[in-house]
Structure formats: structure tokens, C-alpha cells
Amino acid sequence: MSDSLSPQPDTPLHVGMFDSGLGGLSVLKAALRDMPGASFTYLADSGFAPYGHRPAAVIVDRSERIGEYLLQLGADMVVVACNTATTQAIASLRKRWPHAHWVGVEPGIKPAVKSTRNGRVGVMATPGTLSSARYAELLRQHAPHITCVGVACEGLAGAIEGGPATAHLVESLLDLYCAQMSAHKVDTVVLGCTHYPLVADQIRQRLPSQTVLIDTAEAVSRRIRHLASSHMPLDAARVATPVAAQLQLLSTGDPSLLAQMATQHLGLGALEASSAPNTLRPPAQSIHAR
Hints:
Elements: E1 14-19, H1 25-34, E2 39-44, H2 56-72, E3 77-80, H3 83-96, E4 102-104, H4 109-115, E5 120-125, H5 127-130, H6 133-142, E6 147-152, H7 156-161, H8 167-183, E7 188-191, H9 200-205, E8 212-214, H10 217-229, H11 236-240, E9 247-251, H12 255-266, E10 274-275
Parallel strand pairs: 1-2, 1-3, 2-9, 3-4, 5-6, 5-7, 7-8, 9-10
Helix pairs in contact: 1-10, 1-12, 2-3
């Protein structure tokens, strides 16, 4: 990989993206829409999902393994489409590969502070995100005079990851965590895990009608485009290229579930997914550990 975003004129920009599982599809959807001329490789680490309860050292190790693989595939930039992996591992990724281009996803504290009317903001996130030093720094920087209520949504990302088979569990957990948000009378709720926008409609139904939900997928997509805009003109030929033909979906878990969820959420018609290389697959005892 080169030190700058400068693919050949006839070669689309290659964006690598990974998440602990399916949640990053919310970021991928925005990026596909905003950058129709780019090529995307999305890797769902579903065999090791969720990241939220795992030690930081384990998350760093997984992120480095996957990041290195995407760079080896020729990615011009890598998007860490996972709040937990960003808060726990992106500093290590940037240190190990300083010339690579890394884009992270963080809880949208800053836009939430701008949005709130009563000074009370809720943050739905994984335990790993809420306990991270980066989250504490975001609060210090952007919300020193705002009441921020963090709710550790234990099990929610894993339940969403399970797809239709665990839909009933998703509903029960949303009842629990949204009731906590309402009890604190927050008027703005940050979706601090990329899995949560996949169930944003269900969350919205459980909160007061005037509650604002903050999803950072759009901001991340703008950041990706900003990094690439001066290096890859989105000319008519690239825009005309079918997006689905430029998208590769990989999973360390069940690729059929990734294909099903991508087909449902990306709006590109029927999609296929493949298994990630065996070198990225987690130990058997870790698969589907919750």
C-alpha cells in the first residue's frame, strides 16, 4: 500500500472495512451511497462477536489481524466500523501502520450535545466502549456541562448479530435498555454501537416521540469521502459501474447470515458472502461466545 490515496485512474479506490460482526453494515450503506465509484471489502468478525465484553488486548489483537489482512488485499484505507474496536484498538493500528489511512467510529457525543434541549443525553453502548479512556475523553472534551447517562447494553449487539433467530431477545433487551433511557428523561440518545442503527426503528418506538437518535454512520461516510475526494474523482464512468459488482463480503462466522442481513439492509438486491480465510477464524471455543 502506498503512503497516499492515489490509485491508478482506471482503478477504483479500495476501501476495507471491518466490524465485530454485522453492525458495520450501517456504515457500509452510507459509504456505498456516497462513494459509488469505490470498491469495498467488508469483513464481519462474526465468529468472534460481540467485542463489547472482551478484554482490550483481545480486541487489539483481532483488529490488528483483520486490519493487516485488509491492507494485504490492497485496501487504500481501512474503516474500523465498530465503536468498541475504535476506542480500544485504533491507536495501536495507527502506531503499527503509521502510513496507512485509518478511519474510526466513535460515539456521537459532540452532535448529541448540540442536539439536546434539556441538557440530558443518553448513550447506548457496549461495556467496552463505556469503560474506555477514549469515551471518557469525549465526555471531557464535548460534554463537561451536560448530563450524559451511559447504559451498558449487555448482550444487545450479540442478539442483533443472531439475526431472525434471536429477534425475540432483541425485543426484550430493547424494552429493558430503552426503559432506562426514558427513566433518566434524556431527550437525545447516542447509538454508540454500529449494531444499534440496524434496530433504530424499534428503539424509536420505545422512546418518547421527541427523542433524537444520533447515528454517526453519515459522519463516518463523509470522512471517508473527504480523505478520498482529492485523489479519486468520482467521474461518470465510475458512477455508472454497478455497486454490487464492487462489493466483497467476508465473514469469520456464518457467511449466509451476513449475506441475508446485507441483502436486507443495503438495498442492493440479493448479495452473496464468503468465509474469511482460516487464518482469521477464531478458536473453535470462541465462536458464538456471548
